[in-house]
Specification:
The protein is α+β, with helices and mostly antiparallel strands. About 35% of the residues lie in helices and about 30% in strands. It has 2 helices and 5 strands. The protein has a 5-stranded mixed sheet. Helix 1 runs antiparallel to helix 2.
Length: about 90
């Protein structure tokens, strides 16, 4: 099973998204956080199950239609780079 590594940018993205949503709906924010964490855990065993990223060398896990986790994989580690709203551009 591969290790998961969260870059500080991915952690900051997650916190900003959850903080923004929780201003209006704390329950929805918690549900989204739980959903992101559950789907990210799938990467440990199925890193190639998700689409190739828009940036060369990356892959993208669509959590919900509006949220995308951008990651890279190595033989032993999945590195989460960003968690973006679909309207955001990256890099």
């Amino acid at each position: 099973m591969l290790a998961l590594e969260w870059r500080s940018t991915a952690r900051a993205d997650l916190l900003a998204i959850i903080d923004y949503i929780s201003d209006d709906n704390p329950d929805a924010a918690q549900a989204l956080k739980d959903d992101i964490e559950a789907k990210v855990s799938l990467l440990r065993t199925q890193p190639k199950a998700f689409r190739h990223g828009r940036v060369a060398g990356t892959r993208e896990l669509v959590v919900r239609s509006n949220y995308v986790v951008v990651y890279i994989e190595s033989p032993s580690v999945i590195t989460l780079l960003r968690i973006l709203h679909a309207a955001q551009q990256w890099p």
